[in-house]
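Complex 218.
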Amino acid sequence: MIAEAALHHDLDPGGPAERYQIVVHVDSAVLADPDQPGQSVLADGDRLSAESSRRLACDASRVVMRHDPDGRVMKIGARTRTIPSALRRALHHRDRGCRFPGCGLRFTQGHHIRHWANGGPTTLSNLVLLCRRHHRSVHEDGFQVERRADGELEFRRPDGRVLPNAPALPAVHDSEEVLRAQNAGVDLDACTLRPASCGGRLDVGYAIDVMHPRAIGH
Ligand SMILES: [Zn+2]
Ligand SMILES: [Zn+2]
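Predicted structure with zinc ion bound:
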């Protein structure tokens, strides 16, 4: 008997769900271990790497089907979200954006640190928000993420070196008054930064002539 999960995944949570839905058929053995033989295909029959299936399955709607040895569907389970909406709200409240060092992007997907197909629980401690690009980094590109005993996340490069957490950005104190004081004499308005050129290429010779007095006459 083969178990197969059909995964419905909304790529863009901000867009119309139907437009971005992709359906993946993947054998449960492949989902748990990408080295296992079995299918991992899109609804139209195109093959998908097992690692990509695992990524899409991380945060998706899941339908489990059971087949008999001849491939006939025996049983179709109810469609469920891998991350229930209440837990998703708590996850967004905690992580806010992508937790990959230095990212922080607000459009995110839930990632199971230990995949649910390998028995990882769908709990806050086993989940982390990642943007689409960094979700790919940890599934397909060899980056690793662990939650340490103290609860902090630890990201590693594909070669195993720890990725340092990006320092927090300095607070910006420059108010409009400060900027105006620092640029006294400059008439600041909405057109200040508008280029005066017509879009032509930079004339390097001309620029040097203007900016470097000794260059004149060369
Ligand atoms: Zn994931
Ligand atoms: Zn990111």
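The first helix runs from residue 17 to 20.
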